[in-house]
Structures
1.
Amino acid sequence: MPELPEVQTIIDDLNKKIKGETIVDFWSDWPKAIKGKSLENFKKEIKGRKILNARRIGKNIFIDLSGGKTLYVHLKMTGHLLIKFQIPNSKLKTKSESQISKSKEPDFFGERVNQYIHHIWYFKSKKTMEFSDLRKFAKIVLDDEEKINNLPEVKALGIDAMDPKFTFKVFNEILDKKSKTPIGLLLMDQGLIAGVGNIYRSEILYGAGILPQRKNSDLSPEERKKIYQNILKVLKKAIKYRGTSDSDYRDTSGAKGKFQEVMKVYNREGKKCEKCDTIVVRKKFGQRSVFFCPDCQK
Ligand SMILES: [Zn+2]
């Protein structure tokens, strides 16, 4: 599932590529993803609206539109958004920017993972935003900004891991509130800290030298500080690498992120830890796999 760095990459792309665009039409062959209204009403209400800004909390995407409406998108397991250019006189076939400009840049839209298009937003400029979603678990909601903010799943979100208000003091308060919880589970709890998932919890705890099973009450102030610093460090580095594409995630040009090339423990079970040569271990933890070095992490 895309986590904070992948979603931040998409947000940055959207603000660069479609800010100021006007939506002229919408198409979907999977209206079940649209919550709270019919496809017909969704279409009617979104037409003519301008894209003002894209933002996120944790893994959740919010696209603010003119007239006080917000488009809320959760990518879930396999969803990703692609920005394309339409070919004149053809409604569904689209080409990438690189194909149109005939540049030497590779075109990624032909890759299988980018071809599960179930929703398309058409813009006045002939650009499109296309939603590829293999498993079809993604969720789309259009409503007044205030109503979106009050959706139970949005209200339930904890502080975003990259929010400037997420200070070491705030992190400590969260740890103290959940003193019996192992740190490896706490980091994934979107109701406490939003944005970190299965991939980044392993990388953060490796960076901090802490075992995922450790209970928060047993962590010293120095250890807590290391974890906090590594949350910021790992997420920032992953954003710089445009996220992790270990499976379906792609950016808005259909390209892979590159963080999987520099990962230390995630998906590296059976391989040597690069610090100490001990074999990296994989363990089921909170229904998902966690990866760690049994020697470097205490
Ligand atoms: Zn090690």
Note: The first helix runs from residue 4 to 17.
2.
Amino acid sequence: MAPPESPAGASLIVRDLAVQRGGRPVLHGVSFELRCGTVTALLGANGAGKSTLVMTIAGVLPAAGGRLELGGENLLGLPPDAVRRRGVTVVPEGHSVLPNLSVLDNLRAAGSQLGRAELEREIRSVVELFPEVGALLNLAAHNLSGGQKQMLAIGQALIGQPRFLLIDELSFGLAPVIVVRLGETIRSIAERGVGILLIEQFATLALSLASEAHVMERGRVVFSGTSAELSARPEVLHDAYLAAQSSPRAS
Ligand SMILES: Nc1ncnc2c1ncn2[C@@H]1O[C@H](COP(=O)(O)OP(=O)(O)O)[C@@H](O)[C@H]1O
Ligand SMILES: [Mg+2]
């Protein structure tokens, strides 16, 4: 069954999201809005709750409270494939691809819900975006470099034309030249109208791509504003990263 239609330019709105892991509260009322056609940076130290947030949005982790609104519908509590069918996709931390499948089969697996012609069209558009990956379609994915795996993971997430793309640790473990290349692609994907949430350990890179930014500290959003505002207030990030070092991770 097709998911309900929501207005084309609708934002994805996270309201008062609360999540527990291992019986302990990890997110304490997180709220923000992700707009179509923009890059929004999500920054914060290790353990702040960024991955928990995107995995909960994706339907992989259960929420203890709050709402995830898209066009008036609450997506919280839907299973991951239903969230994805509504146009919300996640590139999980660590660019996980199916190592023993070929690159092409990885892309096909990401579009198993699509008709054959549509899937072929989607794969062609991923190949246009990432010709490096397009040249390796028949290679088993475990042979790819880290950068190629991340391109494949982003390509998989783009199959089916999502409206929102949540990328957890874009540059993790990748060479700087690849990171710059990926950054340009992120910008071009947003220019096509996709709303991108970018979790990125290099704050300067994230802020150069993003128009808006949120900073998390111990399961809370402690700053929301434009990238320019955050760039002008380096103490915000400094404090957020320092707070993580000076307190035990138990929260
Ligand atoms: N599998 C898990 N089980 C229980 N608690 C977890 C698990 N993974 C992470 N946590 C806790 O959730 C908090 C947030 O972690 P995470 O979302 O991974 O942060 P980030 O992505 O910002 O580094 C951490 O304090 C961590 O202790
Ligand atoms: Mg993380």
Note: The longest strand covers residues 24-34.
